[in-house]
Design goal:
The complex is a heterodimer of chains A (56) and B (369). Helix content of chain A is 80%, strand content 0%. By secondary structure, chain A is mainly alpha-helical. Chain A is rod-shaped, with a radius of gyration of 24 Å. Chain B has one domain. Chain B contains 20 helices and no strands.
Chain lengths: 56, 369
């Protein structure tokens, strides 16, 4: 039994919106994670730098 | 006497072809060391389920152990998710955390998934096309979860393609990278300074990723969550024993059952179809365009950057870890034996693991309902 549908080239064009949405979605999420990581690095490094002085 | 040979009469040529395919998978696993932990159980399982009236799978009312395992661990996505805990515990996000901008390459290298989605939709209905496209995630557990959730008719072929191409990364990627880059570009040096990453960042990172990914792509919560849970166990510093168990015993146990259970979907009547060949081809398309996406993204960035990036590291953005990072490192060394890109490529490679899971979640968001 073959489940493959008939060859429909138009579907490539019709589904390009998923390519656009998908790539946009990934860049938005990954971009947000990258920004948050930079922020975390900055905040926690500041904290690490301040900690020894506080202890001292 | 008839009892001894009557089952032989049930044997057909398709089953014998599946034995040969199983033999090839076992050969690749043992002789070529290609993903042996999965290809070997899959190869043996392919033989096991293609014996006439095999007792390993359900025959009529008689339930077989592999069919029971399939229902218990793959149809409900439990095995791949549990395996993700182990994988999360194995990943050191350090190189990525010290240089978060590398994450963007992981995003770019998911292009093959969406390109293949469009290509596969010319041949298959959209849910099957999406399940086939996710082969490009270069991530077995993600492929299983997406294929199962979308109720794909081709889960066996998708699994074989996903794991085989992951093993073939050292063969697939170099020609694509060379085709898209000049010798001069491949010789670009990138300075690497290991910035310190605080323990707080390492602990908060998996938690924040789960929250962000969950808010944008709720369907990805299980995938991202289990991966990040494993990583949290690793990084918290108070669960070393659990971390070690997740990395070794848990991951090994699940892998044993995963490979052989996937093989239950490799019965000749389901597997030996023109569709399977097309799926294998589309899987290759996905890997090629993933690689191209990462490399071209790096080249575009170079148009705007003063300090140029070696565009090869874009190719490491696929999730096949650590193969992809090593491929880029070796290519760089081949061009210039003093150019070490391992740390940058590893950072990008790790980001590919996160991005591929998010891509899986987005695919589910689009097509699950």
């Amino acid at each position: 039994m073959y489940l493959m549908a008939a060859f429909e080239p138009q579907n490539f064009v019709d589904n390009l919106r998923y390519m656009g949405l998908g790539m946009l979605g990934i860049f938005v999420v990954i971009g947000a994670i990258a920004l948050l990581t930079m922020l975390l690095n900055r905040l926690t490094q500041q904290h690490d730098e301040e900690s020894p002085e506080q202890k001292g | 006497m008839e009892v001894l040979y009557q089952n032989l009469l049930n044997l057909d040529i398709k089953m014998v072809i599946m034995w040969l395919i199983g033999g090839v998978l076992i050969y690749l696993a043992i002789k070529k060391d290609m993903e042996p932990t999965l290809l070997l159980p899959m190869g043996f399982g392919a033989i096991l389920v293609n014996l006439p009236l095999s007792g390993a799978i359900t025959q009529g009312l008689e339930e077989g152990p592999l069919s029971i395992l399939y229902k218990a661990g793959i149809a409900n996505e439990l095995f791949p998710l549990i395996l993700f805990i182990g994988i999360g515990a194995m990943i050191d996000f350090g190189p990525l955390l010290s240089n978060p901008i590398l994450m963007l390459f992981g995003a770019a290298a998911q292009f093959g998934i969406f390109f293949t989605l469009c290509t596969a939709s010319m041949f298959f209905d959209i849910k099957d096309a999406a399940s086939i496209a996710i082969i490009g995630a270069a991530d077995g557990p993600t492929s299983i979860v997406v294929g199962q959730k979308l109720n794909s008719n081709y889960i066996g072929a998708i699994m074989v393609a996903a794991y085989s191409y992951m093993a073939l990364v050292p063969i697939i990627q170099p020609p694509i990278i060379k085709l898209l880059t000049s010798k001069k570009e491949r010789r670009i040096r990138m300075e690497y300074t290991q910035k310190p990453v605080s323990k707080a960042t390492r602990i908060l990172f998996p938690i924040f990723i789960t929250i962000i990914a969950g808010l944008v792509a709720p369907a990805s919560v299980a995938l991202v969550g289990f991966l990040m849970f494993g990583n949290l166990i690793r990084e918290c510093g108070v669960l070393d024993s659990l971390s070690e168990t997740a990395q070794k015993a848990l991951a090994n146990l699940v892998t044993i059952f995963l490979g052989i259970t996937i093989a239950s979907q490799m019965q000749a009547e389901h597997f030996l179809k023109a569709d399977t060949l097309l799926i294998l081809f589309l899987g290759l398309v996905a890997f090629i365009f993933d690689t191209a996406g990462g490399v071209i993204f790096a080249k575009i960035l170079n148009l705007f950057l003063k300090k140029k990036i070696n565009p090869m590291i874009g190719a490491a953005g696929i999730s096949a870890f650590p193969m992809s990072g090593r491929v880029v490192h070796k290519l760089a060394l081949k061009e210039d034996p003093t150019n070490f890109l391992l740390m940058q490529a590893t950072g990008v490679n790790v980001s590919g693991q996160i991005a591929s899971v998010i891509a899986g979640g987005l695919i589910l968001n689009f097509f699950l309902h």
